[in-house]
Structures are given as structure tokens and as C-alpha cells.
């Protein structure tokens, strides 16, 4: 029977579409010129199809159905399923699609990789189709997934099988553009989201309205409902209308009756809780309030385990990878820092195959890129945290190596389920330390009825990369720091595990483990030291309390081992014990009453909470504020001259003036709570700049003046020298000409009245020299230079005329000499 939904009034019918069946730009044209007959007939056809489908819902017989085509599904869904080559439904699809189409609540549990995604996506699409949902009707279905990658994968599958429908869908996960999502969310009919992001929109986005929502899906429901998401999910559910259909799916359904009550499940249909499947144990519906589905692992999954000391894990992993270079492998570790370190050091060691690392602290785009890279590659090793352990459908994974022990059987199943999906073969290797073996193998055998066999490693086949790792760590300090963080995060993960029978931090050989990571010195583990110290204190108190009574207890509260106390107090991380990022993905806050695991990154890292410290945080800003309040003076610089008097430095005065102005300004604004006044600083800077420029110009002027002075003095000295020489020569010449006149007086002509040619030429050559000292025009030759010197327009007029006059005399002399000679 289909659940009665409140009647939705005024809902518009299907919108006109383009020829390819999709609304688009061409639609605008159709809006201008509607074709009423076409729309009418289409509406009528839709109506007929819907009625026919609804009639068939009552008669669905899962036993008789062999193909999807036999299900009463819309033509659009059938077409897309056929195109994606989904022909025969899987058992979980067979069992759950029928009740879901009938509007019943479903609790579906099926082995990993058995097609649960389609088991809920098909009913979602059909529900909206039957109810003639259109874009303007708002959110009709919400699908919640615990991790971003899984939400992305569901979104991709929805795109594939819903491509012929007209519904709009949105992927709402952390690490994406919040503003973009905000403006579009109200236009989406199907939302696929992670809990934290959904609640954020519910709290902050006034446009987001879930009152029209009719179908809710929780994929990996046990994870969504467990303590980690408990409060977030409670807040989300409060915003949903109580009248709705709810579908819960997971490979490991361990829901309590309270969980189901929280979700308002009405007479749900249990799928996978009793039927016989491969490797299944019996289903239990316990009176203790827990509803446990059949726990199973894929039939074609080969499982084995190996027992190793913690310090031998890296050697084993290295040898394993070297022996499986052409395989697709996922290596699960318990913390992001370990995944990061293993990836970095193995990249340096170069095993000979592609390496990837997927963990929650990576940027979202990077995570999606790595996820897609791993999907595509046929042989690759990916180091991952449990962010990839649930739901991700990587094709053809040959090996899953659980390098760190899983928290419980459920986690083992999900990790192992990344291999041997959808009737393919795969292998899983569980690595256990001797202290973990008994409990874990016992639990697996008991809950899964599993016959897992132990593998003995041939020591001859092990290659230890330790020497190389140590060399790399010595060479790269950053890598060493990553190794130290990986070391600490592993110890912390073991320390914080709730199951103390399985995880015993005191059984670990820390020195040996540190050395195996390549660390020469074992890093200090402050939280462990503090824990041990407190334990010791408690024991002492108990002992003394028994002997002395309550007074003795009080006396010893702050006593104890000095060294361990120092350890705890001096280290910044010492409050790690109480300040743990929580696996509880509560966004509302609240006190922690449990030690929670900070190493699981799942995906909602933005929601991790920190329990407030007892002491007030000392930040740089608070220190700066304190200093400002004390009115501390900035250091000043004084200059002294040779006599020991202070010299006024106008530049520093200017600065002092600026600072004074700034301080005056600040004093005026008494209620200013510290920080920098940007506007004031800007004006001061521009003033200082102007001043600097002025000063620079003055300095340049001074220098030029000095240079000119020097040049002038030099020329004057040169002129004086040449005048003296001239006078001397003149006197000599006078004496010589008098002698000549005496000797040639009878047969020659007296030319003493003519000017001295030597003098004339000398002056001319000195003029030439002067012109050569001037910078030459860039394009002129040497000859041109001479021409310029003789007849340049730049030559002062008086110089030119002087030379010309002298030249005329010289010419006259030459002409006369020629005439007389002839
Ligand atoms: N009817 C079908 N026919 C063929 N292949 C299918 C069918 N249904 C699902 N598959 C394929 O099986 C694979 C596993 O499907 P899916 O991821 O839905 O499994 P799951 O049960 O959700 O796994 P997990 O428990 O790990 O989340 C996918 O590659 C999917 O395309």
C-alpha cells in the first residue's frame, strides 16, 4: 500500500522539453510559442503511464521478477537502466524495490558490492515521477551519506540512471563552495549530502526549505546513526516533515530500536535480515533493543591474516608491494598521518608501481582527483584511512590490506568489501599484532562464521627498506617530522580505542616501532606519559587513602614523580588526553564524556570539535594588546657630531612627528581596541614618501653643484696655463723675426706686419680639442665631429666670428706669400 501523502495543491505539470528531452536554451523559444496540443497529449500520456504503474505496484512479486523490465518502472528509468546495461536486478534490489515503490519504509542490509545504491535510487526517481515532481516543487528527496566520496559516487550513479527524467539534483558536501550551493539548493529536487553540510544549510540558509521533502534515504545507515553523527542527525531529522518514506541501507545494519524510533519508521520491511546468503550467520532481532542484520562478506573474497610485531609491518608491506606490482591494492591504516607518511616514504623508495594516498585532511578537490585516479588505474597502490572503507565502488581491486587492525567486525567487513565486488574475485589480508590476534580472530569467527586462515611469512622473502628509510629521514627533515607525526598518531589511535581488550597501548614496543619508521630517536608521547603518571597517582592515592584517609589523598594531588610531571607540563601537546578531536561529528558542541578517536577522519573534518582548554589561550594578538596597554615606547636613534653634540636628523624628526600624530589620533579614539589604523598609516606613509622624494632631489642638486664647481676650476686653470705659454712663445718669435729682418733685409720683402700663423693655428687646434671634449652626436662620424667643432650651430656666435677673422688674416698671408713667390 502506498502511504497517503498530503495532497499538494497547484502543482504544475511537466514542462515542455527540447527535442533531446532536456530543458535548455531552446526551451525559451518554446515558451514564446507554446504548443498546447503537444503538451496536453504528453500530459495525458504521462497521466496514463502513472496510473498504470500505480496499479501494478500492488502486484509486485519479487520471486517472479528476473529482469528490471518486469518491474513497474517509468519508461525513462527503464531506458536509462538499459543504456547503463543493468538488466538483471541483484537480490537486494529484487527484495527492496517492490516495497519501496509501494511507499513502505525499508531497512536494507546486503553484502558489500551487491548493488544497494540502485536499490534506493530507483524508488527515489519513481516516487518523484509518480508524484509529478517538477523543478518548482523544491526538495522531494534527500539522500544522506557519511562520506563525501560516497555522496559523489551516488550522485554519479543518479546522473546515469536519472538522465531521462527532468528532476534537478544537487551534491551538497563539505569542501565545496557554500555560496554557490546556497543559491541553488532550493531549486533541487534530489539532494545528496553529508550530514554536517546539510545541517549547516538548514541552520544558515533561509532559502532552504525541507517541508516538501517526501523521501529520506540513509546510505551506510548504521554509520549515519552511530554515535559519531548522532546529534547532527537528530537535529537534521527535526527539520524533516514527520510524514515521509524512509529507506535505510548498509552492509552492516546494527540499528537499535531507539534509532528506528528516531527516524519515525512505520512498520518497516526488513531486507537481508533472515534470508540465507553466502557466508552468513543467523539474523538476530535481539530483545535487548538491537536489530542486527545478517553480517556477511562477499562469496568470492579470499581472506587471510598474518601475525607480526608492530615494527615488522613496514618491511612486510614493502615486500608485499614488491611482489604484487601489477595489482590494484588498497592499504588501510588508522590515521591520516600514517597514510601521508607511508605514501611519502614509499614514493621515495620507488617500489615500481603508481602510488596514491586518500585521507580526510586532504583538500576536497584533491580527494576527488585521487578517487578518480584510483578508479581509472589498473595497477596501483593506495594508502587510505577509513574514509575509503565504506561504500566506494572501485572496480577490480585485487587486494585489500588492513595494515592496522580494524576497530570491530563491521569495519573489517566494509574495508574487505572494497574488493570482490559484484561477483568478482578479490583478496583481503588482515595484519595483526600478537596482542590483537586472539580477540579479533575470535570475533570474526563468531560473528561472521568465517574460516579465515593464518599465513606464515617466509623470512627469506622479506626485504627490509629500513636502511634506505633512515637515510631519507636523515636527508629530509620534513619527512622526519612526518614520520614523528605518524608515530604519535598511531600510538594515539591505539590509546583512544574503546575496546581495550583488543587494543592495548602498553603492549607496544615504542622504540622498535619508531626505529621501523626510520626514526633514530623515539619521539616522546606526552599523553601516554601523563596517562601513566595519573594512573600511578591514582594508585598511590588509593593506597594512601586506605592507610591515611581522605586527608592523605588531598596532600598527594600535585605530588608524584618529578620527571613525569615535568614531561606533562612542559609539552604543548600534554593536554591531548582531554583535547581530542572527536569522532562524534556533533556540530552543536557539548561536553565529552568519553575518550573519542581523533584518528578517524571519515570526511567531516570541518566538523571536528575541540574540547575547550582549561587555561585561557595566549595568542600573539593578546600579547600585542598587552604591550599596547603598557604604552611601551619604540626605540629611538640619536646621531652625534664630532664634538659629541646631538645632530638633528630632519628625517628622523619627520618620523617622530608622524608617530606623534599617530599617537595623538589614537588617544582621541579612546575606545579603539588595538590593531593598526590602516587609513592613518596610509596617509603617514604617503607623507613620508613625499618627504623622501624632496630630500632626494635636494641631494642630487647639491651633488650637481659640486661637480659644476670642480669643472669650472679645472677649465680656468687650463686657460691660465695656455695664456702663459702663448706669451712666452710670442716673445721668442719677436726675437727671431728681428734677426731674420736683419739678415734678409737686402733681397727680401719685410712681412713683419702680417699676423703670426703659428698663433692662429694654435688657437684653432685648441678650439678643436674643446669641441672633442663635448659629447658627440650619436650618429655622426669623426669627420662630422670635426665639422661640428668648426662650424657647429651650437658654437657661440662670438667664438665663430673670432675664428673667421683670424682665418681671413691667414688666407691673406698665404695669398701674399704666393704672389711674392711668383
Ligand atoms: N543490477 C545490476 N546489474 C549489474 N551491475 C550492478 C547491478 N546493480 C549494481 N551493479 C554494480 O555493482 C557495483 C556495486 O554496487 P553498489 O556500489 O551499489 O554496491 P553496494 O551494495 O552499495 O556496496 P557497499 O556496501 O560497498 O556500499 C556497482 O559497480 C554497480 O554498478
UniProtKB/TrEMBL annotation:
Helicase ATP-binding domain location, by residue?
A: 97-271
Q: Which residues form the Helicase C-terminal domain?
A: 313-463
GO terms in the biological process aspect are: regulation of gene expression
Do you know which SMART domains this protein is assigned to?
DEXDc, DUF4217, HELICc
Q: Which reaction does it catalyse?
A: ATP + H2O = ADP + phosphate + H(+)
Q: What is its EC number?
A: 3.6.4.13
Query: Which ranges are annotated Basic residues under compositional bias?
Result: 1-10
Any one Gene Ontology MF annotation carried by this entry is: ATP hydrolysis activity
What range(s) does the DEAD-box RNA helicase Q domain occupy?
Answer: 66-94
Tell me which UniProt keywords the record has, alphabetically: ATP-binding, Helicase, Hydrolase, Nucleotide-binding, RNA-binding
- Taxonomic superkingdom: Eukaryota
InterPro entries in UniProt:
DEAD/DEAH_box_helicase_dom, Helicase_ATP-bd, Helicase_C-like, P-loop_NTPase, RNA-helicase_DEAD-box_CS, RNA_helicase_DEAD_Q_motif, SPB4-like_CTE
Q: Where is the motif named Q motif mapped on this chain?
A: 66-94
Question: What residue spans carry the Acidic residues bias annotation?
Answer: 718-731, 781-795
Biased composition annotated in UniProt, kind: Basic and acidic residues: 664-673, 756-772
Which is a Pfam family this sequence falls into?
CTE_SPB4
User: Which top EC class applies here?
Assistant: hydrolase
Task: Tell me which PROSITE patterns the record gives.
Answer: DEAD_ATP_HELICASE (PS00039), HELICASE_ATP_BIND_1 (PS51192), HELICASE_CTER (PS51194), Q_MOTIF (PS51195)
Q: Which family does it belong to?
A: Belongs to the DEAD box helicase family. DDX10/DBP4 subfamily.
Q: What is known of its domains?
A: The Q motif is unique to and characteristic of the DEAD box family of RNA helicases and controls ATP binding and hydrolysis.
Query: What is this protein's record name?
Result: ATP-dependent RNA helicase
From which source organism is this entry?
A: Drosophila guanche
